[in-house]
Design a protein that fits this description.
Elements lengths: L1 E9 L2 H27 L5 H16 L3 H32 L17 E3 L4 E3 L3 E6 L2 E7 L11 E9 L2 E9 L11 E6 L3 E5 L4 E3 L1 H20 L2 H35 L3 E5 L1 H7 L5 H25 L3 E4 L24 E3 L6 E3 H12 L35
Parallel strand pairs: 8-11, 11-12
Antiparallel strand pairs: 1-5, 1-7, 2-6, 3-4, 4-5, 6-7, 8-9, 9-10, 13-14
Helix pairs in contact: 1-2, 1-3, 2-3, 4-5, 5-7
The protein binds zinc ion.
Length: 397
């Protein structure tokens, strides 16, 4: 089965301009082709290419591939609209209502650009995208569950809610896992590695101790800087990783088992929520934590798949500031790191548990990943301070 995964693109103001310019030109080409396709009822891609290709290339300065893709979008849009109207008319006919007719399609200035592999390729962390101004490489957010790049059939560039996204169509073999009625929410942290919405906390005390011990040793060796010291450094970092890996194996196993035993799915937050919360200053520490978080999430995903447990990744923005009882969101709900006290309904409790409950609840809504921002990046819209109870659809920022 095919499914669409939304990948957030991170573009500098300069690159955003390039994407906008390309998007506008591409859709202008679609708008140019559309009346011809409509008036001549030419909805076959090959037929329309024959008729319009050279004009589109000349007029819009698109590459050969991009000109073809614009024409293909027009032909495809007409065919799918015609199919939709046909299906709708069957019902209207049965009801004795007036039937719908196909009309000329107009294309929005910032409508999707339907790329293919020749003009957009996905790397491990970066997407290589054709623009009018040459190719650009942009970082994108990649969920742990994202399959190998080879499984991507098509990628559309979409502008939505002030940000650029890639909608990647992928073949997903895991679709046989049915949607569970409930989720076990997992909140990831530094002091407490993981807290579940059942209230079980996996302490990071042991790993922190190891990290600190090696940390001091590391600093001393780094200062030394000799060849021997460098070799020791390498060994230490290997040992530390192996220890953390063992801990992550144990935690992920227990989490998946808890979900499996109660026929629930596992809900995790995407990295934005975690990065919003953890203020790590030292470079090594940050890198180490990111690696550890990523590994734990990967282990959970892997073990869950083997156990037939569905894993959903939700938008982690403000999970720690939102009240799991009434939905009120405010940074003031957190008097300190460990405590949650709702300013609105006075609900009080452990902050990680409150976040885990929010994560579990967000997984139950249809669209798990909403727009959210990384620190230091600004979106057009400001986050809302107060939100409706979390039974409502996932909040967008
Ligand atoms: Zn509340």
């Amino acid at each position: 089965m095919q499914s669409v995964t939304k990948l957030r693109l991170y573009a500098s103001p300069e690159d955003r301009e390039k994407l906008f310019a390309t998007m506008e030109r591409y859709n202008a080409a679609c708008t140019f082709v559309s009346p011809v396709a409509f008036s001549e009822k030419q909805f076959s891609n090959i037929g329309l290419q024959k008729q319009m290709y050279s004009t589109v290339r000349e007029r819009f300065g698109l590459s050969a591939q991009m000109a073809q893709l614009a024409i293909r979008k027009v032909a495809g849009s007409y065919r799918s609209t015609r199919e939709a109207i046909k299906a709708k008319n069957k019902i209207l006919k049965a009801l004795g209502e007036p039937l719908q007719v196909l009309s000329e399609i107009s294309f929005r200035e910032h409508g999707a650009v339907c790329y293919d592999a020749r003009v957009l390729s996905l790397g491990k962390n970066r997407a290589n995208i054709w623009t009018l101004d040459g190719r650009i490489k942009l970082r994108y957010s990649r969920p742990d569950y994202f399959p190998p790049v080879a499984a991507v059939k098509q990628t559309d560039l979409v502008y939505r809610d002030g940000a650029f996204w890639l909608y990647a169509t992928v073949e997903s073999p895991d679709s046989e896992i049915p949607e569970p009625a409930e989720y076990l929410g997992v909140d990831l942290g530094v002091v407490t590695i993981a807290t579940t919405s059942d209230g079980i906390a996996y302490s990071g005390a042991a790993t922190e101790k190891v990290r600190k011990r090696y940390g001091n040793l590391r600093a001393a060796l780094q200062q030394k800087g000799t060849k021997d010291a460098k070799e020791k450094l390498r060994k230490i970092s290997g040992r530390e990783r192996r220890f953390k890996t063992d801990v992550n194996h144990v935690i992920s196993k227990q989490i998946v088992r808890a979900a499996e035993g109660t026929k629930r799915g596992v809900a995790l937050e995407d990295l934005t929520g975690i990065l919003q919360r953890t203020t790590v200053t030292k470079q090594y520490r940050e890198r180490h934590h990111k690696w550890a978080f990523h590994q734990l999430r990967t282990f959970i995903a892997y073990k869950a798949r083997k156990a037939g447990v569905l894993v959903k990744v939700i938008d982690g923005a403000y999970t720690s500031q939102q009240c799991s009882v009434c939905g009120y969101t405010d940074s003031g709900n957190r008097p300190d790191q460990a405590t949650f006290v709702c300013l609105q309904c006075r609900h009080a409790g452990n902050a990680d548990l409150n976040a885990a409950k929010n994560i579990a609840a967000r997984a139950l809504v249809n669209e798990p990943i909403a727009v959210c921002s990384l620190p230091g990046e600004r979106l057009n819209r400001k986050p809302v301070k107060s939100m409706k109870p979390i039974k409502a659809p996932c909040p967008r920022f």
